[in-house]
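Tokens in:
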């Protein structure tokens, strides 16, 4: 049975940039045991499968797979899938140009701006991040990404979770951040001990003048050595920047993060959030989406 798929670049400032995504928009007839096999075959950070929703509030259900596992929530898979459904007419946007997608983590509202049938922008609402504590063993943290404790910026590495848990590690300089790389078993052991999906390290030194953070992200347990653009981590990263006074103070914030430069997939991720009574009250994350290709499996 032929199985149609599309390939998109998400958080992409230009073609052949951003985070690649494969979407199977008509997955209802695909055997469920094929989902993980197809995700491994595509071998992108994530592949999505669109199904009829169970919730009457949702326009579509989406399942998200890495090459090794299924995720309850993610960033660029939600944005890319929403853009595709809108651009192909599979989902009709409401008057606010939004749709609701049903994930294993719950319902997510996404707004889509179509520039044409191949390009546009998508913005998702994200849960408010919650802190699960800081980590004081800087030597072990640094060694897990092949750095030393002197490379860690003077802010405590912290575990922050929305629907996914991330370990946020501040790095003093761009030069140190460029030297970072996953330290095999040591990084996997640290992430398992902390019970998080991945490590997000960043510097406030950036390539682009309009960016506030340069980011690298490692997810060895998910089969992703380095992620080109981690949309789900942007809410936690923005909360960390705000908490540690790394942003100019205000009530409304717009944070631009750059990622993927070290692996040839430059990405730009924008986070908008509001603060009331020193607490984050809403978070939205978005970026540009480009439809790159379509095809089908003939199995």
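Residues out:
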């Amino acid at each position: 049975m032929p199985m149609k798929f599309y390939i998109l670049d998400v958080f992409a400032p230009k073609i052949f940039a951003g985070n690649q995504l494969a979407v199977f928009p008509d997955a209802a007839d695909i055997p469920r045991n094929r989902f993980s096999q197809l995700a491994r075959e595509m071998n992108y950070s994530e592949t999505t499968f669109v199904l009829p929703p169970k919730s009457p509030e949702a326009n579509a259900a989406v399942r998200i797979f890495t090459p090794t596992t299924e995720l309850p929530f993610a960033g660029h898979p939600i944005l890319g899938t929403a853009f595709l459904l809108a651009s192909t007419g599979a989902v009709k946007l409401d008057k606010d140009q939004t749709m609701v997608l049903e994930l294993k983590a719950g319902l997510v509202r996404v707004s889509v701006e179509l520039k044409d049938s191949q390009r546009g922008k998508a913005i998702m609402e994200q849960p408010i991040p919650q802190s699960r504590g800081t980590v004081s063993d800087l030597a072990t943290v640094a060694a897990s990404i092949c750095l030393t404790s002197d490379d860690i910026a003077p802010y405590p590495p912290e575990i922050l979770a929305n629907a996914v848990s991330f370990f946020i590690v501040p790095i003093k300089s761009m030069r140190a951040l460029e030297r970072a790389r996953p330290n095999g078993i040591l990084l996997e052991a640290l992430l398992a001990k902390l019970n998080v999906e991945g490590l997000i390290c960043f510097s406030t030194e950036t390539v682009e003048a309009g960016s506030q953070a340069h980011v690298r992200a490692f997810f060895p347990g998910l089969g992703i050595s380095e992620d080109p653009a981690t949309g789900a981590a942007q809410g936690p990263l923005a909360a960390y920047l705000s908490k540690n006074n790394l942003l100019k103070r205000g009530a409304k914030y717009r944070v631009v993060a750059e990622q993927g430069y070290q692996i040839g997939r430059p990405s730009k991720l924008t986070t908008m959030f509001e603060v009331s009574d020193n607490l984050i009250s809403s978070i939205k994350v978005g970026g540009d989406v480009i439809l790159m290709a379509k095809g089908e499996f003939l199995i």
